[in-house]
Specification:
alpha/beta, 6-stranded parallel β-sheet, two-stranded antiparallel sheet, 9 helices, binds ligand PCO
């Protein structure tokens, strides 16, 4: 079972040379309930292959059977590496992904990534990220958390790494607060990802 974890990644690396590999990170905001629709809309993009990395807290907000692609968990990392010669899952994933999008990015994971903390699979992928590849993030948290001064500091820190914010929006949040903190709409997120797809090459043959 652990073999197919990485062998599918490796075959993907080899096989899907034409595809654009999107890795979706999902964290413990209630907006993670949008994961199934985000994944299915990303899969509509031409030539896109999608995988998911989840944190433990995110698991509370979606049903994995509603997600049609592989979801990698912290447990997968532990199961995969049991001896020196085993591959390291977070390194295989950072090699595999052409683009990483963290949607939603909760306050906890924002703080971890802004400070280089890497205590789970997703933050390890982010910590090992090749900053020449796009990393998009979609903050989502309660309005009070969003308005705390540390949030702006940490969001600008991520931008200094070259990461791209897809800003949160104003909504009546599930906890009853009205204000900023809601994750950007899935359609907005997908349209931003579309901008990073490789441009179709003009056919050089004269027709
Ligand atoms: C869940 C959804 C998408 C419904 O429209 C929206 O409320 C949202 O993005 N909330 C994320 C903000 C959050 O984590 N609030 C936590 C406490 S209020």
């Amino acid at each position: 079972q652990s073999d197919d974890l990485v062998s599918s990644l490796k075959t993907d690396l080899f096989k899907s040379s034409g595809t654009f590999r999107v890795l979706v990170g999902v964290t413990g905001s209630v907006a993670a309930l949008k994961l199934p629709s985000l994944v299915s809309e990303l899969l509509q993009l031409p030539g896109v292959d999608v995988r998911v990395v989840t944190t433990e807290h995110a698991k509370h907000f979606y049903n994995p059977s509603d997600v049609s692609v592989k979801i990698y968990t912290d447990k997968d990392e532990w199961e995969l590496w049991t001896q020196r010669s085993d591959p390291v899952l977070h390194i295989e994933l950072r090699r595999w992904a052409d683009l990483l999008i963290i949607a939603p990015l909760d306050a906890n994971t924002l703080g971890k990534i802004a400070n280089g903390i890497c205590d789970n699979l997703l933050t390890c992928v982010a910590r090992a990220w090749d900053t020449s590849r796009p990393l998009l993030f979609c903050p989502a948290m309660n309005t009070a958390m969003w308005l705390h001064p540390i949030t702006a500091q940490q969001v600008s820190g991520l931008k200094e790494f070259g990461y791209v914010e897809i800003p949160c929006i104003t909504k009546k949040l599930v906890c009853g607060d009205e204000g900023k903190g809601a994750m950007a709409e899935v359609s907005t997120i997908v349209s931003v990802v579309r901008q990073y797809l490789p441009k179709p090459v003009e056919s050089s043959q004269k027709t």
